[in-house]
Design brief:
The complex is a heterodimer of chains A (320) and B (355). Chain A has helices spanning 2-13, 15-37, 42-67, 100-123, 189-211, 248-253, 266-279, and strands at 77-84, 126-138, 144-154, 168-175, 182-184, 215-225, 231-245, 282-283, 300-301, 308-309. Chain A is α+β, with helices and mostly antiparallel strands. In chain A, a hairpin with a 5-residue loop joins strand 6 and strand 7 (231-245). In chain A, helix 2 (15-37) packs across helix 3. Chain B has 355 residues and is of the alpha/beta class. The longest helix of chain B is centred in the last third of the chain and has 20 residues, at 315-334. Chain B is globular, with a radius of gyration of 26 Å. Chain B has helices at residues 3-21, 33-37, 58-61, 68-71, 116-131, 135-139, 233-236, 245-262, 315-334, 342-346, and strands at residues 48-49, 62-63, 76-79, 96-102, 108-114, 153-161, 168-174, 179-185, 191-198, 203-205, 212-217, 278-280, 292-293, 301-304, 310-312, 350-352. Classes of the chains: A alpha+beta (320), B alpha/beta (355). Chain A binds chain B through residues 8, 11-12, 14-15, 18-19, 22, 25-26, 29-30, 33, 72, 74, 90, 99-101, 103-105, 107-108, 110-112, 115, 118-119, 121-123, 126-136, 151, 155, and chain B through 1, 5-6, 9, 13, 16-17, 20-21, 117, 120-121, 123-125, 127-128, 131-136, 138, 329-330, 333-335, 345-346, 348-353.
Chain lengths: 320, 355
């Protein structure tokens, strides 16, 4: 009797996925209906709020990972790209390297390159370094592109991180070489990289002096062979400081129709925010002066003049 | 959301609840799948293609069919060299030429074939899968999980040779390899010669006593201007495929070689182009003709052309060999001795500043 009841209870447990799937189906059907009819109802609110909360959670996780400079993680990486011809790969010159073996050798070279570069990084600005990911892409003309990401830890203190739980990362891009890159001999690349790391650290120090904190959240290198046997090396970095940025949840709260805006299109998003600001009688202010050659975050909310409502509510700043 | 959808959903839920909470056992309805899967597996109507007329059941032509002998391990894989420059023995006067074209059937054997490229592809894919996913995944990795495909097993296609006064000269052709040709002469049939147009991964089992087997390796490039071209313009153009000039030239060269060697046009004997478990190599015999005696693969000698192919004779061996060779591809790329720990080469190492 008892066993039978247990069996039946277990069968009832099987209903949970049915009910979950059914509930999800009903919600999404209602959401689709509302979107098609252009009306914001219960389902739209639930879906948008849930989505926004998830995005905020994800952003907070990234923030914590980037700021935790003692840890090695995939959110703070040095990305390196190198383009080679098949002949430059081991065994490439004897004509035996073709098909999938190019990819295998590419991965092996990338993996070994990661170790060499990690060793160089800890001689420079990093206190620890580890391989993160590698990709091999074979182009139509037969060139092999190696992409390697290295996680790194930094010994430089971030600065004042008080109130980090309520803060967001405000990233800034910085050009670490001339935009077109610099031509260097292959043997000098390691030394050039060391200089570039120093430039990134200096930019971060400047931002830290201004904002109270800064972290190098990423550096990317691109190496391409030139016709005269040199390597064109270009580098960009991203430094970030903690600030008060508008969260996606807040945008939803003020009624921004995120469903109608492509979040990957900053200009469209900025225009939507501006329109919403106008509709809410908010004033769109000037961006605070940035550092280096970077741009401020689209949602940088500053204490300086910004989006102000007449009742002294939230202040928003957008910058191109 | 309309009321109808909600009611329907609730009714569905009610039925599911009633079914799960009731005393019914959770069984699939009987669609007769089990009965068609059972038995010899060779008794389906229309499984043997004929030159003309409707397909025949294998049991109309063969006695003692034993499906187990198809998936049993062969006794030996014996490699046979291809004839140099495709100079195969020409059919002699009085021989009946029977060209057969086939595609792999559904009868999987325990013979696996693969070449180095197949292994390299699998190794590259395994590396990509882990190296693009990040250090965390890599750190916890216990195995590289190479994709070892079962589809690399060769399929059995049975060629039934009907009785007749003339010695038979069989020409076995396939589109893409992957066939073990099982030759079963009916009583009164005399198979004198078998020419396997190879280059793919196909072989022959149960070569009749006294018959000569030769392989023309079309994939080797030694055969002339063509390189494994068996499909003919007359066939492919019907399907709307427009061949390049290079392909046309290769076809022309192949057709000339075929006609010169065998004395018949290259596109004859296309009856087996459909998937079939068997092909009748000649005219349909009278109904009262004595049937061929079934012979499968289990314990038999299978003759295979070597090429660059590796053969395994059961799934376990196939998997072990494949993985060992895929690992060897990776260690070679890293420039370390074969047998080195591949995972150790891939897993991340943490570099830390010590000073």
């Amino acid at each position: 009797m008892g066993a039978n009841a247990l069996l039946r209870s277990l069968r009832l447990l099987m209903l949970i996925p049915f009910l979950g799937a059914m509930g999800y189906g009903l919600l999404m059907t209602k959401f689709t209906d509302e979107m098609q009819n252009g009306e914001a109802g219960i389902a739209s609110n639930i879906v948008l709020k849930f989505g926004a909360a998830w995005l905020d959670h994800s952003a907070n996780k990234t923030r914590d990972a980037v700021i935790d400079t003692a840890s090695l993680n995939a959110d703070r990486v040095v990305s390196m790209r190198r383009t080679l011809s098949v002949n430059d790969l081991p065994g490439g010159g004897d004509g035996t390297l073709f098909g999938a073996r190019v990819e295998i050798v590419g991965f092996a070279v990338a993996r070994q390159w990661a170790e060499t570069e990690c060793a160089a990084m800890i001689e420079s600005f990093a206190t620890a370094c580890s391989f993160s990911t590698a990709r091999v892409t074979i182009s139509d003309n037969g060139d092999v592109r190696l992409d390697v990401d290295l996680s790194f830890a930094s010994g430089t203190p971030v600065g004042d991180t008080t109130g980090i739980e309520q803060a967001s990362l405000i990233p800034q891009r910085i050009e670490l070489t001339d935009r077109r890159g610099i031509n260097v001999a292959a043997a000098d690349i390691a030394a050039e990289r060391s200089k570039i790391y120093a430039v990134a650290e200096a930019a971060c120090a400047t931002l830290r002096a201004e904002k109270g904190n800064c972290v190098i959240s990423g550096i990317s290198f691109d190496e391409e062979p030139t016709e005269d046997g040199l390597v064109r090396l270009s580098a960009r970095g991203e430094i970030a400081s903690l600030g008060q940025a508008v969260t996606v949840s807040e945008l939803v709260d003020i009624g921004l129709d995120l469903a109608a805006v492509n979040p990957d299109d900053p200009e469209a998003l900025a225009a939507a925010i501006a329109a919403k600001a106008a509709a809410m009688d908010l004033e769109l202010g000037e961006a605070p002066s940035g550092t280096a050659t970077g741009t401020n975050s689209l949602f940088d909310r500053a204490d300086q003049p910004g989006l102000k409502d007449s009742q002294g509510g939230a202040k928003f700043v957008t910058a191109p | 959301m309309d009321l109808k959808a909600i009611v329907l959903a609730l009714v569905g839920l009610g039925i599911a609840f009633f079914y799960l909470a009731g005393d019914n056992k959770f069984t699939l309805p009987d669609l007769g799948i089990a009965s068609t899967m059972g038995g010899s597996g060779l008794s389906a109507e229309g499984s043997v293609l004929t030159e003309s007329g409707p397909p025949l059941a294998m049991t109309q032509l063969v006695d003692g069919i034993d499906a187990g002998s198809i998936s049993a391990a062969p006794g030996e894989i014996r490699l046979i060299e291809a004839v140099a420059n495709c100079a195969v023995t020409r059919p002699s006067a009085g021989q009946r030429i029977a060209p057969i074209m086939a595609e792999p059937s559904t009868l999987q054997t325990q013979i696996y074939s693969y070449d180095d490229d197949e292994i390299a592809r699998s190794a590259a894919y395994a590396m990509e899968r882990v190296l693009t996913r990040g250090g965390k995944v890599l750190s916890g990795l216990k195995d590289l999980n190479f994709e070892v495909r079962n589809t690399l097993a060769l399929d059995l296609v049975t060629v039934i040779v009907p009785p007749g006064p003339e010695p038979v000269y069989l020409i076995l052709k396939d589109q893409s390899g992957g066939i073990v040709w099982n030759i079963l002469p009916m009583p009164g049939a005399n198979v004198a010669h078998v020419t396997l147009l190879g280059g793919g991964y196909s072989g022959v089992v149960n070569l009749p006593e006294g018959a000569v087997l030769e392989v023309a390796d079309l994939g080797s490039g030694d055969c002339g201007a063509f390189h494994r071209v068996i499909e003919q313009p007359s066939v492919t153009e019907d399907s709307g495929f427009v061949p390049s000039d290079e392909t046309r030239a290769a076809w022309a060269a192949y057709s000339a070689w075929f006609a010169d060697t065998f004395g018949i046009p290259a596109d004859t004997g296309q009856s087996g182009r459909q998937r079939a478990i068997g092909v009748l190599a000649g005219k349909t015999p009278p109904e009262d003709a004595a049937k061929a005696v079934w012979q499968g693969v289990g314990g038999k000698v299978v003759l295979m052309p070597p090429n660059d192919v590796i053969y395994a004779i059961d799934a376990k061996q196939h998997k072990e060999w494949f993985i060992a060779k895929a690992n060897a591809e990776i260690t070679k790329a890293f420039g370390v001795p074969e047998g080195s720990d591949v995972l150790a080469l891939l897993k991340p190492v943490v570099h830390e500043r010590t000073k």
